[in-house]
Amino acid sequence: MSFCGAALALAPRTAGAAVPPVHLEVEGCPSLDAKSVQRIFSADLGTTATSEAGPEVTEVIISCEGNRVTVRVRDPISRKTVKRSFDPKSFGTQAESRIVAIAASELVLASWAELSANPEPMVPPEGPPPSESAVETARSFVRARTSTEPTPSVATVAPAPTPPPPAKEPGDAEQPEAFPPTEGQRADEPARLHQPSKPLVADRVTAIVSVRSFFEGHGTLWGGGARFGRERFGVVSWALDALVENGVLIEHDQKPDGEETVQDHHATSATVGGWLCFYAHAGPATFRGGGGLRAGVLTLHDGPIPAVWGWPMLVASQTLRFRALVVDFSGEMGFASLSGKPSLQGTWASGQVGIGIAL
Q1: What is the dihedral of CA 335, 339, 341, 343, to 10 degrees?
Q2: HEC string for the chain
Q3: pLDDT at residue 197, rounded to an integer
Q4: CATH class of this structure's domain 204-358
Q5: Looking at domain 12-147, which CATH architecture does it have?
Q6: Residue 201: which pLDDT band, with cuts at 50, 70 and 90?
Q7: What digits encode the pLDDT tens for the residues 69-90?
Q8: Quick count: other Cβ atoms within 10 Å of Cβ 288?
Q9: Short-list 100, 104, 96, 106, CA closest to 149
Q10: Is residue 297 pLDDT above 50, yes or no?
Q11: How far is residue 127 CA from its own chain's centroid?
Q12: pLDDT per residue as tens digits for the range 169-189
């Protein structure tokens, strides 16, 4: 049985564009309304229906076998035959004719689209080549059709449901627990996780300005250096630094007759220091307290060979973090005992300010 629709005006989305002719037949499909298939096909594709086949007429044959419908398109313009087979009842039983007609329209459009997507195939197809006007008509029609296809609005697209998490198998590693969605949070947003908070200041490198003074009046040294620090194990912080300080050390010499002489010495101190502290966070600040050791070489500009010494010390430190920028304030206190020229013995204190980056 053969049914051919009357010529229809072009659909609005392809208005003004020439349309290649198409011949459609429905064979052996008692469950389909052939006239409805023809009407919907012509309206959806916006093509001119013709009652006869021809050398440049695209043929569409719709046939049925059991519950399956086969759509076969023989396209003399692209010189190929394409076929699609499916069960329309899987989409519901109320609109089988419409589903079949739209499927046929899509298959024809896909065949013509290859004329633009692959205009010069490496393996030429069989059959006589179509006229340039027929090829250009099909290409123009595809461009007009695809350039005016409506784009689905993002606001109307429903989010895909989130699949449930897989069942936990024995031996699986414990996963962080997910928070339920909070007020104002969309259900499709990733759930926040219970994860251990990271330290506000982890690894840090700072440039330091320092001042060191002796309580007994032995003088003051100024200088600076660099420090690297790290927080570990949730409670322990350590740091290493290197400092070079210059200044004047005052030597007090008590003579046997009771007279005291005072002599100034220009000195340079090069030291390395190490801390081991406990730490705690409070907002953007990190506080530390503990102890360490500072050791190095003290050189007098007018004196003998350099003296090697080491000072145990108490340490207090505070770090403020602003994104990747860190500002350090630290203090040290210890006791020095150095004999020689000059002799240093007594309590000292040091204050340091550093600025650097968190790594």
Answers
A1: 40
A2: CCCCCCCCCCCHHHCCCCCCEEEEEEECCCCCCHHHHHHHHHHHHCCEECCCCCCCCEEEEEEEECCEEEEEEEECCCCEEEEEEECHHHHCCCCHHHHHHHHHHHHHHHHHHHHHHCCCCCCCCCCCCCCHHHHHHHHHHHHHHHHCCCCCCHHHCCCCCCCCCCCCCCCCCCCCCECCCCCCCCCCCCCCECCCCCCCCCCEEEEEEEEEEECCCCEEEEEEEEEEEEEECCCEEEEEEEEEEEEEEEEEEECCCCCEEEEEEEEEEEEEEEEEEEEEEECCEEEEEEEEEEEEEEEECCCCCCEEEEEEEEEEEEEEEECCEEEEEEEEEEEEEECCCCCEEEEEEEEEEEEEEEC
A3: 45
A4: mainly beta
A5: 2-Layer Sandwich (3.30)
A6: low
A7: 999 998 888 888 888 888 887 7
A8: 24
A9: 106
A10: yes
A11: 52
A12: 444 444 444 445 544 445 444
pLDDT of residue 4: 38
Q: Where in the chain is the domain with CATH 3.30.160?
A: 12-147
CATH 2.40.160.20 range(s) for the chain read 204-358
Return the pLDDT at 155. 40
The pLDDT assigned to 196 comes to 45
